[in-house]
Amino acid sequence: MPFFEKLIGENALVPALVIFVLTYVGILVFAKARAYIALGAAALFVLLGILNWRELPGAVNWNVLMMIAGTMGTVSLFIESRMPAKMADWLIDRSPNLMWAVIWLSVFAGVISAFVDNVATVLMVAPVAVDISKKLKVSPVNSIIAIAIASNLQGAATMVGDTTSILLAGEAKLNFLDFFFFKPVGAAHWGIGMFWIVQVSFLAATAVLFAVFRRDKQPIRLEERAVVTDYVPTVLLVSTIVGLILVSLLPASLRLPGEINGIVCVGIFLIGVAIYGLRSKTIKNAFKELDYFTLLLLAGLFIVIRSIGEAGVIDKIGDVFKAVSAGNVFVLYTLVVWFSVLISAVVDNIPYIATMLPVVTLLAEKMGAPAYVLYFGLLSGATLGGNLTPIGASANIAGLGILRKEGHEVSVGTFMKISVPFTLSAVLVGYALIWFIWR
Predict the structure, then answer these.
(1) Mean pLDDT, the chain, integer
(2) Concatenated DSSP letters for 378-401?
(3) pLDDT per residue over 30-77, tens digit each?
(4) Of the candidates 23, 161, 181, 330, which lies 20 to 30 Å from 132 by C-alpha distance?
């Protein structure tokens, strides 16, 4: 029996809420230690008896963790093969001037980011923009900002595009194809999924980029080109996507394990390990590139969220949203989207999404609202909202880090001159389309 179990007893709401708030403050203030803060909070919930230690394995969403880990491993092999750099070269060859090169690189970053981690995408594509800027003797600042925010936007397009999408898929029981064509339980017809909504949002946001770069008409020419000598990682990445699609098509009657998506992602990465050999430099680098910090953060957050659910905190948060929306589903949807935009502008969207998903599930049950409308609104607002500020998304931080190494310090004002119109145009389009299609 935990030491404090009798002290807290049935009145766990207040101490759970205090721990939860302190955890969030700690994650926000001490970003480099946020995984340890989440794990420490999880341990505290167990020690206080708010969560029984026997429930720990069930509190962690192993499917999500395996999907993230497996995809990270395969993506690291894909990046090392230099295939993304080769694809960027192909695009630049077809760009008549700097404006079109930046637009195409942004589009390319978005396409890659729909299947590859946003930060990894920025690290792949941004150096190309830096090289172009050096050759033309122009500032790379606006180009890198454009690549970063385009990459972050497209993370909501597919199930494996971003950690937030993987979290949503786990909570809402969505498969890979549901992000393209979605048919809710009980619905008579299929409809378009988040992928197409994100593409329309991206078109609206790209119009902002044309306005920003309209005067950059300097011609460009590549002198050095990437060489790809290993196509195995490309096959593995494509196999991951195909595998997730095939699993999506299998009938439910087969009773597949709940972790099937994670098994596919980890399994294909392990095939790569077998091909290259565990001791090879390629595989050692792949394991080094795995973001263990994020995996630990998520594991801790899953336990924290289960704990506050047991204590009734999620119910209380849901009651606040329900009261503010006055029982109106459209007002609730609007609140979820724009509150997510504002919060994600200053708080990492991973812990925010992880916390709000069970809240949204509960709200849908209490109000009889279509849960998927709130899910998609939450994903859209939280993912796109991260583009508002330099600290709102990891992709933005990575892009500014590259600029800092090149001797360019970017002010908040400079960043937001591009990010605010880009983000607002994308969010407004997504906000309208999600409600119009799925209300």
Answers:
(1) 81
(2) HHHHHHHHTTSSTTSSHHHHHHHH
(3) 867 878 988 999 999 888 888 888 888 888 878 778 877 888 788 788
(4) 161
